[in-house]
Design brief:
The chain is mainly alpha-helical and 166 residues long. It has 2 domains: 99 residues, no CATH class; 38 residues, no CATH class. It has a two-stranded antiparallel ribbon with strand order 1-2. The mean pLDDT is 88.
């Protein structure tokens, strides 16, 4: 627990540090403003100079993308619907001489709390067992309303510091 004297000391130290911080931060912001203005002018020139190349490329890509889109959809459909009885992808990778299709699958496992309680005998419900159980606070809050505050742990957030100029 922080005492009032500690709080006042901390506030005084932070104010002194902020007095040092402000002019240096202003210098940083001034340099960034000049840089951003110069970069913006150069980016606008660059974008204008590249416009003809981008236009030509986009026109050439349009029919190519139209040909690719149905092929990609069909490959994705074939691979994402080829699953085993547990919903796991049957193919991780399909190679041809010319190309490769890879399937990346994230799986999430779920244990029904009632099944876990039925499986683990009461005598084996150690602190490690109880640490395995988590309660979805949102759903529990909807179910119990304000009664949840009678037993829920208080929410603790790690403080984050944001510095800005006035």
């Amino acid at each position: 627990m922080t005492t009032k004297a500690q709080t006042e000391t901390t506030e005084r130290r932070v104010k002194k540090l902020l007095a040092k911080f402000a002019p240096i931060e202003q210098q940083r912001l001034d340099v960034c403003t000049v840089r951003d203005a110069a970069v913006k002018r150069e980016r606008e020139k660059f974008d204008e100079a590249c416009k003809p190349f981008n236009t030509l490329a986009n026109e050439a890509l349009e029919p190519i993308n139209e040909q690719l889109a149905p092929l990609v959809r069909e490959i994705e459909n074939l691979l994402t619907t080829a699953v085993d009885d547990r919903g796991m992808a049957l193919f991780k990778c399909v190679d041809s001489r010319e190309a490769r299709a890879e399937v990346k699958q994230q799986s999430q496992r779920y244990v029904d709390p009632q099944d876990l309680l039925a499986f683990v005998p009461e005598a084996d419900r150690t602190p490690e067992f109880w640490a395995c159980l988590e309660v979805a606070i949102g759903k529990t809050s909807k179910l119990l309303g304000s009664k949840i505050d009678e037993f829920a742990e208080p929410e603790y957030k790690t403080p984050k510091v944001s510095l800005s100029l006035k």
